[in-house]
Amino acid sequence: MTQTPNSLAEIAAQIERLVAQAELLRHRAVVVVAGEREWGRAVVAAVDVAPYQKRQLWISSEPPAGVDALPAAKARKQLGRELDLLVFDAYSGFDPDAFGAVSGSVRAGGVLLLLIPSLAQWSAFEDPDKERIAVYPHRATDVSGRLLQRLTTLVRESGLPLIEQDRPMHPFAVESVVAVTPPYHDEIYATADQQQAVEAVLHTGSGHRHRPLVITSDRGRGKSASLGIAAAELLREKSRSIIVTAPRRAAVDALFEHAAKLLGVDSAQGSRLEYRQGVIEFVAPDRLLHEQPKADLLLVDEAAAIPAPLLTQMVRHYSRTVFASTIHGYEGTGRGFAVRFQKVLDAEMPGWRQLRMQTPIRWSTGDPLERFVFRALLLDASPVDGDQLATLSLDECHFETVERAALLTGEPLLAELFGLLVLAHYRTTPTDLRNLLDGPNLSVELVRYRGHVVATALVAAEGGFDAELSQAVYEGRRRVRGHLIPQSLALHAGFVEAPQLRCARVMRIAVHPAVQGRGIGTALIERLYAAAEQTGCDYLGASFGMSGELLDFWQRAALRPLRIGLKREASSGAHAVMMASPITAAGRALIEAVHQRLIDQLPLLLTEPLNDLEPELVSRLLAGHASSETASETLDEQDQRDLASFVSGSRGYELCMAAIRKRVLVAIDTPALSENERALLVAKVIEQGGWPRVVESMGFVGRAAAEDALRCAVKRLL
């Protein structure tokens, strides 16, 4: 007997009952509405939204008339605000970043309605979001639907409330529930976790110096509110200057609101809250490190989204610091932050402490929407536990190029792979999951040990343009999606032929922390060379935020620097560097020419646009590479006299600087130099910084002391 589909009124009534029960349970409901676009909109229109009139939002590029709406690209504007009703229109494209970001805005008792095509058709749907990863010459129609296929399976298997057009609806609302009340009763604190976090911040603010506190949590645990409560308590105790920093001012709205409420003052609309003689002030990270204002306590919120080099400078400069970050956030950065920053703190501040907030505040434990978002976007994906790799040997590892369809056959494999990428890289977002599954120019290399993922590399095929397109890129008339290295070598480095050659760019490479140093990374690179040669590539390349560790890794793999970004990246806080190693004769000619061009220009670049480059990176870049400035001018007899007279103190720096510069450029990497001496030579001789700047940055008492130290450093080069 054929069952009749439910009417819109019946569907709406079922959703309304579900929302009412979610309110009692302090949960957030999520309902998948699968069918034709106009039918899905009719379902939403039929729901009685009277309770939601002030706090509803559509994420859609073509919303119905008269509703509050944002396109997916602007979904982050909703961060920090609460919603009762959120409609995510997947017909406008399923943007994983937007879905992860805006889902956190739904309050307890609210509902997210996910509008999708029929489940049978969703994976084949021409999703508009595919356009973002359709690398030239591919079109959106060339992008696979593996992510949508995975989501389809998840919807079917998760038991989520599902309404399908032309199919009878199975009742999904529980008939009777017992109302859930917050388990913690306190005028100030919402949970015991929050009270513990506040007490830890208070201890940091008034206890021993140089013992940083790191607070991590998932979203909705009251992390930012805890910082605000603690800041207010510290100001009430005595006058203090508390600086707050975060990637953006909006990220600390909750901090200022809770502090203002507790202090009984107006909530700060700007960036400053005053109480008696004390102050809580927001200062952006770049301004904070440039001006270095005095503070009794520094609070850093959403620390995972701030580049690690900046965090390191903060912990070195300020004696009392608290770093708070979301660990499984929509940006996917928290776990990698925790691992990398822990290494910094272990080295810099061994007395640091860590605290994890686990109890939800904004909704109850077991929230259906949080559970679905975590699974859908793999926000809680983790690599295999390091204890299971204790006996690993390289001989037992299995290397393979994985067919990406195979990643859908076993969730543990995908979770281990993506978890390793998140752990190893600073900014891994949900869109990276889509690119991993669907990117049309991507290949995935895996290293497995007893079935577990211990290393991986994602390689993008780039270049292969015709002469006409290459010329257009070189002249700045065309810029196509993707092809990072070939286009940059043409447009920025000035090599018109570069886009015609084929490049295998290593987008991501990761080795499990528990097995690093055992040759796995080296063996994986060798495999990448072989695969690139087999597919007709002219060179192997990589682009990354430059650090000493990464520069050493890629130089050991025989890659040479080709181009350095003139400004620091917002994502890493470092200058980006492009490196490559040739495979074919054509690749060798290009790489050698571009590399030599960089080495020739580097001494000049270091005097102005790159004069903030770290000394250890300068010495690594110059090591063993003669520029035209040094190769054409060896030290003559007069140069030798100038060096000797400077070292002896009989003549000043300015009278001997030409000879000193020649010597320093070819010998900056000598092991005889201490790190401070190398930094001084870079700052004064290579970057040609003025004496006042050198004295201040290096901590000398005056020019005479700085010049004496410079004489000692130059003497070590003779």
Automatic annotation (TrEMBL):
Keywords: Acyltransferase, ATP-binding, Cytoplasm, Nucleotide-binding, RNA-binding, Transferase, tRNA processing, tRNA-binding. It catalyses: cytidine(34) in elongator tRNA(Met) + acetyl-CoA + ATP + H2O = N(4)-acetylcytidine(34) in elongator tRNA(Met) + ADP + phosphate + CoA + H(+). Transmembrane segments: none annotated. CDD domains: NAT_SF. GO terms for molecular function: 18S rRNA cytidine N-acetyltransferase activity; ATP binding; tRNA binding; tRNA cytidine N4-acetyltransferase activity. InterPro entries: Acyl_CoA_acyltransferase (IPR016181), GNAT_dom (IPR000182), Helicase_ATP-bd (IPR014001), P-loop_NTPase (IPR027417), TcmA/NAT10_helicase (IPR007807), TmcA/NAT10/Kre33 (IPR032672), TmcA/NAT10_N (IPR013562), TmcA_C_sf (IPR038321). Residues 445-584 form the N-acetyltransferase domain. It is found in: Cytoplasm. Coiled coil: none annotated. Catalyzes the formation of N(4)-acetylcytidine (ac(4)C) at the wobble position of tRNA(Met), by using acetyl-CoA as an acetyl donor and ATP (or GTP). This is tRNA(Met) cytidine acetyltransferase TmcA. It comes from Solemya pervernicosa gill symbiont.
